[in-house]
Write a structure and sequence with these properties.
Phosphatase 2c, domain 1; alpha+beta; five-stranded antiparallel beta sheet; Heat Shock Protein 90; globular; 7 helices
Length: about 325
């Protein structure tokens, strides 16, 4: 399954909704959504964008493709929703508008989830998908946010997912610096990972290190989840962080000092316990390492896109590229 980097759109006023909708529909066409689904997606974007302006005091839309689907994440720092169930009921409004917004989103989208805090803001994810789905569902539910440094056209970070039914794995890479040189290094790392997804994490890191010689270089981490054994195997080089969130606690995994393509030293891998309700969070150093999941009651049980989006909203450093990946295993 191919997952693309999210497109970010600032939505602080109504005029910005139309521009976002036009660009998102271009993405939908390239993804292959038919005319009916494009219409559904346009309405979802309108409603989520309007909700940002009317209720959230402005915010962001982050849009990505997930296989044949298009996913829209709306995040704000507003007052939060007092009653989520009421807000998703048709006809409900807090500002005198028709009140069809979030109720319409729930009807139009194949997946909708929400996380809100009062005060603190709201995140809503909605996915528009073809009704006919072939093949087995992916083993991993994955949420991602990847946003370039302000002023840059490309992001020097990257990620990849290998959705092996037995031992799925994820990689996050942060090309040194930012701009085209960093992006070239991260893209090369992604290609190496995708060429041999079955390698153990330490072997993946070693292969990426060899491939990146002569490039800008990168920090990179790989995690592999083994449900049958109940463990995560992890290997990292540089300052891409990996954390297991489970049962109200966070366990930070170990990465070695160094830079893939330049200075690796000895590459190690470590194993950590994994439980069925756990969430894996990996991120570049564009996200502060000081985030605390305990500040967000109930967030780990929501869709991983909401986990990634909330952490990005509240802990992004805003002076570098940033990537956040959150993942959990689907119920067997």
């Amino acid at each position: 399954m191919i997952v693309t980097n999210p497109l970010p759109f600032v939505v602080d006023e109504p005029s910005q909704i139309g521009e976002a909708r036009r660009r998102i529909l271009d993405l939908a066409v390239s993804t292959g959504l038919d005319a009916e689904l494009q219409g559904r997606l346009a309405l979802v974007v309108n409603e989520l964008g309007s909700n940002l302006v009317k209720h959230g005091g402005g915010g962001q839309l982050l849009v990505r493709t997930v296989g044949a689907s298009v996913e829209v994440l709306a995040i704000d720092r507003g007052d939060g929703l007092a009653n989520v169930a009421e807000c998703f009921r048709d006809g409900y409004s807090t500002v005198g508008s028709p009140g069809t917004g979030l109720g319409a989103v729930q009807r139009l989208a194949s997946l909708v989830d929400v996380y809100t805090m009062r005060p603190g803001g709201t995140a809503i994810v909605a996915r528009v998908s073809p009704s006919a789905r072939r093949g087995a569902s992916p083993v991993l539910e994955v949420g991602t946010v990847t946003v370039p440094k302000a002023g840059e056209e490309v992001c020097g970070d990257g990620f990849a997912v290998a959705d092996d039914p037995e031992v799925p794995s994820l990689m996050v890479v942060d090309g040194l610096g930012h701009g085209l040189g960093a992006a070239d290094a991260s893209r090369l790392a992604v290609r190496v990972f995708e060429a041999a997804p079955g390698l153990p994490p330490s072997a993946q890191i070693a292969a990426i290190h060899d491939a990146l010689r002569g490039s800008r270089g990168a920090a990179v981490s790989v995690a592999r989840i083994d449900r049958n054994r109940g463990v995560v195997t992890y290997s990292g080089l540089g300052n891409v962080a990996g954390t297991i969130v489970a049962d109200g606690t966070s366990r930070h995994m170990v990465s070695a000092n160094g830079t893939a393509g330049h200075d690796a030293g000895r590459i190690h891998e470590f194993t950590y316990p994994w439980s069925e309700n756990a969430v894996l969070v990996m991120h570049s150093d564009g996200l502060s390492s000081r985030w605390q999941i305990e500040r967000y009651p109930g967030l780990p049980s929501r869709h991983p896109t909401l986990v990634a989006g909330i952490l990005y909203r509240d802990w992004c450093r805003e002076r570098d590229d940033v990537t956040v990946v959150a993942a959990r295993l689907r119920a067997p």
